[in-house]
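Closing statement on the NAP sub-project.
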Amino acid sequence: MTAHRTQFVPSRRHVIAFASALSASAVLPAHAASTMPTRKIPKTGEALPVIGLGSSKAVSQIGTDGPGALTEVLRTLAAHGGKVIDTWPRNPENDAKFGQIINTPELRSRLFITSKIDRVGKDEGIAQFREAQKAYDRKTLDLMQIFSLTDLATHWPTLRAIKDAGEARYIGATVSEDKLHDQLEAFLRKESPDFVQTNYSITERKSEAKILPLVQEKGVAIMINRPFMNGAYFSKLQGKPLPAWASEFDCKTWAEFSLKYILAHPAVTCVLTETADAKHMAENAMTASGRLPDAAQRKRMAAYIDEVL
Ligand SMILES: NC(=O)c1ccc[n+]([C@@H]2O[C@H](COP(=O)([O-])OP(=O)(O)OC[C@H]3O[C@@H](n4cnc5c(N)ncnc54)[C@H](OP(=O)(O)O)[C@@H]3O)[C@@H](O)[C@H]2O)c1
């Protein structure tokens, strides 16, 4: 795997400022000043940190729990050199509060914001894009995607026009279920997206068959969703022992086990981990910095999972 360094190197002052802003439950580790490994977006060469945040859970909790947890998660991601946040507008009140958080001076210029269209119809799609611009207070979003290939034939020309107008830097489409892989493959063969998103983890490996080799061949960046099967991964593995040989690639937890398996695939650009817990965000972010399994170790990991599940 080729790991590239981000250009932004947090100063000691930055890290101390972030650390003091965090609650005692999310104290930054001593080496939080180090930058996160990055991978290049094939179409431009821009470097992207390899662990991002799937914001759905934390944003949906704003309504009941307030913005504190999400603020801590975002500060933790940024303090570890991360910047990618996957979103899509749904609840206007929560989205407005989310917009305020990502536009605080300490975060605004450091984030890579992605959003999605999940409604049917041309006008609906454009309206949803405008809502994202407004909620996130950005004329230009970093990445605009079509959620789960919804009304793809209608929205793809819209996204191309949005990119041509300079309102999105990159465009693409997402899936999160194996049953949509054939359609995603057809889209990749026909069009030239900058990014796609797919489900992939140590327990959901279907993307290895066609999607991951195809994005490598076509020079398309790929973000990974469902690294923990939206949390089901942890209940499936509850009570199962992490193999002792996982320490050979610096793996101490089941979360690291899936993330390291994903990150060791050379096609992967960035993994989106969803969390409302700053400690989990820190754990996920730091996973990118240790050793990754080689090809033989990855085979052993997959065989072990097949054996215990
Ligand atoms: N079609 C689409 O476009 C699509 C569909 C699905 C997902 N996505 C994207 O992918 C993102 C992530 O995928 P996902 O939603 O399936 O979630 P996921 O990352 O697979 O799993 C999230 C769950 O794992 C827990 N978790 C996270 N880190 C942990 C850690 N280190 N230790 C223990 N538990 C941990 C979280 O709970 P805590 O809050 O307690 O940490 C949460 O319950 C989404 O947020 C979204 O951005 C896109």
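Residues 10-232+266-288 form a domain with the TIM Barrel fold (CATH 3.20.20.100). With this model delivered, the sub-project is considered complete and its resources will be redirected to Aim 3.
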